[in-house]
Write a structure and sequence with these properties.
The protein is an alpha+beta fold. Helix content is 24%, strand content 17%. The structure holds iron/sulfur cluster (SF4) (2 copies) and FE2/S2 (inorganic) cluster. The site of FE2/S2 (inorganic) cluster (FES) has 12 residues, from loops.
Amino acid sequence: MAKLTIDDQEYEFPDGTSLFDACRQARGEALPHFCYHPDLPVAGVCRLCQVEVEGMPKLTIACNTTVRDGMVVHTRSERVNKAVQQVLEMHLINHPVDCPICDQAGECGLQNQYMQYGLYESKVPMAAKVKKHKAKVIGPYVILDQERCVLCSRCVRFCNEVTGTGELGIYNRGDRAELDVAPGVELDNNYSMNTVDICPVGALTSRDFRFAKRVWMLKNTRGVCPGCATGCNVRIDHEGGRVYRLKPVYNPEVNGRWMCDRGRMTYKELHDERRLLRPFAGGREAAWTAASVALADLLRDGGFSLVVVGPRASLEEMFLARKLAPADAVVGGPADLDRGEGDDLLLDGDRTPNRGGLKTLGIPEPAAADLAARITAASGPVLVLGGEPGRDAGVAAALAGCGGLVVIATHDGPSVQAAAVALPGAAWAEQAGVFVNRQGRWQGFAQAVARPGAAREGWRILAELAGLAGVETAPQSLRALRKEIVDTVLSEGELDMDRMPETGFVPGGGER
Ligand code: SF4
Ligand code: SF4
Ligand code: FES
């Protein structure tokens, strides 16, 4: 352990701790910085994190220094503040200061640090600034403004060290130095938009989010990406019932600080034109009351003869769906649908968020041909929810021939088209729930935006179906349902599903 003094207070840190991290803990906030990033190798190029260490003639950069026993460090002295101001001024010499039209405004390291340390009059008139490329498309998702770049090299290190794809580099020298893609190359890897997150200024911005919304107008809700079985933790940025973007949320047990581009785009499905907004009964749009009458008629002789619950349903929906038919008549699947190519970083070949839930509840997943045969052989009403099994042609044909099909869906599709009664359900950002990821980790998500049209929470629809099917133990609230899940699946009291741990919960893993 090293004992040192930071800003007149004594601290103790394990040997090898970076002085940058030590100062962050001591101050309760990070030192000014552009190039330091906790998940990238140290570059030490921006010179912003300078601190005064007694006994050293010059100021030193904290990100490239480790703590030493007996060190006396000053982070807020006049000398340090002056140095930070000078370095900031240097970074701003050729900066275009086009904050009003910059998507980064409101979450920009340069803006924020200028407000804290700068506040000087620029000595360089706009006309004398070096001009570089603005709005240069460098990949399917990312656009580059070279004038705004502070050459921190975070994006370069990300592409070299995290994805190993090496598309970016810093070319030329002095005030002509600029960030760019290598000649003939595009920034096109599964994780390219993480460069937008880590760029401390508005040099790399998202083509998708470009000019869509001022960031200070967005509200944030924590969620879980529905794009694959990894279950990356996300922040859903939304306003006025519309989701504008997903950003990764740090979870050291699941996704660290990254997420893939494919996952970021999953929010688009929430607002697409295929959303099912009203119930349908007998091929016509119907009110919920009319749909309930049709359902009561369908279920008058008892429950469902087959329930097909897909891996996009929440754990709560899966648990309730299990009550609607005998155990051997509740299946998932098809097991061979929603598969793609995974990679070594985060993206899983299973492109659904809750196959882990099916596994947890012991719901088997037949292959498409077997599922089609089960549907064809069903002697009474069939319920489909939690995905679109009809994307398999054989299953679609079986569903089309099914007389008493009830579907809970977020989007129109072959199942809805074949249904006697189709009911609009809430999508992942429109209701609370739990997904179980590929590690078996239970991860909770909250409702971010209002449900569109007449869509309802899946568990409420299933509770109503349970009532109509004569199931006596249908829960009356989400809380009651969750308690029943915990009591059935876990040891009693092991988890409060309304207060899920931030990093998720692995049954038997000792995590609370
Ligand atoms: S584009 Fe952004 S992340 Fe990349 S070097 Fe420039 S400022 Fe840093
Ligand atoms: S790796 Fe999977 S869970 Fe993570 S962001 Fe991508 S699609 Fe979503
Ligand atoms: S953060 Fe230390 S030199 Fe950039």
